[in-house]
Amino acid sequence: MKWKHMAALGVALAVLPVFVPAQNLVNRTDSVYLFSYATVQDAGRSGLQFAWSRDARQWFRIGGGYVRCDYGTWGAEKRMIKPHLMRAADGMWHCVWQLNDKGLEMGHAASADLLSWKRQTYFLKGQTEGEQSAPDFTSLNKEKKVSALVDGALYEGYMQKVAWPEVDRMLEYAGYRAEKGRLDAECTAQDAGRFSGLEEVNMQLDVRPGDAYPISDKLIGVFFEDINYGADGGLYAELVQNRDFEYSAADQSRERWDGSYAWSVQGSGGSFSVVEGDDPVHPNNPHYAVFDVQTPGVMLKNGGFDGIVLKKGEKYDFSLFGRIPSGYKGGKVDVLLLDKEGRKVGGTSVRITSDRWKRQKAVLKAEADVSAASLVLVPQTAGKYEFDVVSLFPQKTFKERKNGLRPDLAQAIADLHPRFMRFPGGCVAHGDGIDNIYDWKGSIGPLETRKPLRNLWGYHQTRGLGYFEYFQFCEDMGAEPVPVLAAGVPCQNSAYEQDKLLSGGQQGGIPMEQMDAYVQDVLDLVEYANGDPKTSKWAKMRADAGHPEPFDLKYIGIGNEDLITDVFEARFSKIFKAVSEKYPDITVIGTVGPFYEGTDYEEGWDLATRLKVPMVDEHYYNTPGWFVNNQDFYDRYNRSGSKVYLGEYAAHLPGRPNNIETALSEALYLTSVERNGDVVTMSSYAPLLAKEGHTQWNPDLIYFNNREVKPTVGYYTQLLFGQNSGDTYLPSDRTTDNNRTDVNRRIATSVIRDSRSGDVIIKLVNLLPVAVETEINCPGLPEGEAVLNVLKGDPSDKTARPVEQTLRVGERFGYELPAYSLSVIRVVGSAPSVR
Ligand code: AHR
Question: Residue 616: what pLDDT?
Fold first, then answer.
């Protein structure tokens, strides 16, 4: 509990003097009243609010929301009910509130200035023992509840007398937030007004190769998560949906989402059911189908994921586990591919006669191009048939891997030249509740032994795309694998379990007595990836899967956007210590919450600094205005602290499009990431993939359907940065003939060198509605033709693509940045003075 930490810091509350009323601590003439309350209209979801008054009658609103309840799911929970603000004799503020209407579960947070708040704790009223126990309130004042009229509405809350400067500081902060909100809301829709009459800007860029410094060579990577049907039905090339009959009503609330989903009986004289019988193919896969055939010819059909795409002449590997229940004989089962009209476009047959599960395999050849075919199983003899793990896999996968990836999608990802890939997700990794944490061990081994998992985005994970396939994909792309594992706590928005106290949010961390086993699982992952198959059971599993050589794992992420609480700290610290002691060469990546500021960010950084975590994973989805106005975000960072992995970011506009405006604001920001490549080691846009018609989150980088891959404009920003990455930053001086801050913030440049090729790469971003005529001076740059790629369009353009051309360059050359554009100039091989 926080109280214990404070005691450890020497703030022993037990010996604190009793509370001295605030009016005795301050100059009376300077004191005013501070009223704290929660808005009832939204059940306290806006957090703690403040108003001030001279006479405790007329109240002026200050604002608030600097502390909000973080407990439970968004929408349903995260309520701050009846907050009670109290002050300790040391001046520290403490706020205690009810988490829900029951009034048994409480939250607590403390603050020195009412603006920045420490981590939250949740406890049961009166519980004084255990990991989640009530703070000691004896030293706090207990002001009486009062009512106050604020902006015409009557609120109940608590009133304190405080020194005027305290309120003054709060008002100043509220003003700062308002100004910040205005900058964050800046967007190109305002450009006609903001930049009316703006003439072409002239710029001079003077590169200083002599001041070059090294930057990370892994700046651009990808973050893969099974969201938006990114894996099953997406990147994973399996064509049969619900092949394992393990879909379950618990996966989501959609009607008829159960073990029979995507399957149906066609024709008469047969019925089919999904059972959880004795002796399944594998205990991890307990359900299977029983097809009762009275009239041969009746078919069991699977419609795939929105149909099965077939390409004429291509081959498909079919397999299933089949068994005949006692009392039946079985026989030949035709396996057919049918088009929408029911015409056969491919076929083969297998024999199922054994009373024990046996895997049957066959190869089918597509006789036509079909956009939405189905697979049918047609027993030729009456009787009962049991089926499981029914699979149809194209032989053409990315790099021809068995159980591999859809080649067009995988290639689109590989084309980004990602230097790493984070997997298997953000929220998917830490899961919606402890039982939903992604256990990597359940995702490896033969397909029938893999443990299916509810996907918290509202569907099902077969985990046919599991850790082995992720590692292999990384290797095939030349990307470093960056697996992320839960820090022993599930998603901070995990559902609140009815009638189970303190089960919301992350208060359901893995019980400490089970953490040793969890830590061992994390350590075993390193063995699986890097160990020797002769000595390690886990490495042997890797070898058995076809990869005796190590995968050369260098990074492990622990945690994802977690609430930084005591529950989190205890578990994270245990994992971190174990991994860094046993594998000092592995870089552990910690987590600092879902935003670029706030309690989790501050507490996460504080913890990382105390534990000396080598790298932390930052996430922020912000407006284009934020990205434009915070290009100095990493320039403000300590150069010798933990490194940063910007693991999830994207520019979000209302309506969530992915267009030139979002893509260019990301490009502007990426030039600042390159400049700060001594602190920022890696970055990845999020999310990566989204299937049309099955999208839970927008915008994404690559949209797709069964036939097409549709990269977005933002994809091309990533591609231009990924394909033009380097390892050395060449600082430059930039002067323009316009001294407006809003104009200059919309122009960004970055000059880097790739020492492997010797190439110098100049990136120029212009988010202005006018061109920027530029003179570039780069001592030592060889004269010749450079490759120029330009991505440009109207801000709302969603279809723009980079156009490649050539540009004459030298030590001094001119180039006009078109309005709303990203230009990348690549100068092949540079002269020694640029080196
Ligand atoms: O990228 C989508 C989600 O955003 C991730 O799962 C989570 O980490 C973040 O909240």
Answer: 98
Nearest residue to 420 via CA among 668, 169, 241, 681: 681
DSSP 158: E
Q: Do 682 and 645 contact (CB within 8 A), yes or no? A: yes
For residue 758, name the pLDDT band (cuts at 50, 70, 90): very high
pLDDT digits (tens, 9 = 90+) for 437-470: 999 999 999 999 999 999 999 999 999 999 999 9
- Is a pLDDT exceeding 50 seen at residue 367? yes
Given 105, 246, 561, 661, which residue is catalytic? 561
Q: Are 208 and 780 in contact (CB under 8 A)?
A: no
Q: Is the peptide bond before 548 cis (omega within 30 degrees of 0)?
A: no
Q: Name which of 614, 684, 622 is nearest 647 in CA terms.
A: 684
| Per-residue pLDDT reduced to its tens digit, 316-365 | 999 999 999 999 999 999 999 999 999 999 999 999 999 999 999 999 99
Q: Is the pLDDT of residue 498 over 60?
A: yes
**What are the backbone angles phi and psi of residue 647, rounded to the nearest 5°?**
-75, -25
The DSSP H or E segment spanning 31 is strand 31-38
Element (H, E) at 538: helix 537-544
Q: Which of 390, 438, 445, 403 is nearest to 241 (CA)?
A: 390
Question: What confidence score (pLDDT) does residue 345 get?
Answer: 98
Rounded to the nearest whole angstrom, what is the distance from the C-alpha of residue 530 to the centroid of ligand 1?
28
Residue to mutate (ligand 1; options 423, 427, 696; most atoms within 8 A of CB): 427
Whole-angstrom distance, CA of residue 64 vs CA of residue 93: 15
The total of other beta-carbon atoms located within 10 Å of residue 697's CB is 15
In terms of DSSP H, where are the helices of 145-190?
164-184
- Phi, psi of 173, deg, nearest 5: -65, -40
Q: What is the residue with the minimal CA distance to atom 7 of ligand 1?
A: 426
Q: Which residue do the tokens 């399996």 mark? A: 238
* Token couple for 600: 């989790």
Side-chain-side CA neighbours of residue 2 (13 Å): 20
Count helices and strands (H / E) in the chain. Answer: 15, 44
Tokens 């492997």 sit at which residue?
Answer: 756
Cα angle, residue 196 at apex, residues 191 and 202 outer, rounded to 5°: 90
561 catalytic residue (yes or no): yes
CB neighbours (10 Å) of residue 602? Answer: 17
Query: What is the sign of the dihedral through the CA atoms of 45, 66, 158 and 17?
Result: positive
Q: Which atom of ligand 1 is nearest to the CA of 647?
A: 8
Please say if the pLDDT value at position 2 is more than 60.
no
In sequence order, the 6+-apart residues with CB closer than 8 A to the CB of 52 are: 32, 33, 34, 35, 59, 60, 62, 167, 170, 171
For residue 225 the two structure tokens come to 């998560």
SS3 assignment, position 487: coil
In degrees rounded to 5, what are phi and psi of residue 32? -135, 175
DSSP string, 731-763: -EEEEES---HHHHTTEEEEEEEETTTTEEEEE
CA atoms within 13 A on the CB side of 833: 9
Question: CB under 6 Å to ligand 1: residues?
Answer: 225, 227, 425-427, 560-561, 594, 648, 686-687, 697
> Which of 683, 664, 704, 707 shows the shortest CA–CA distance to 823?
664
Decide which of 831 and 396 is more confident.
396
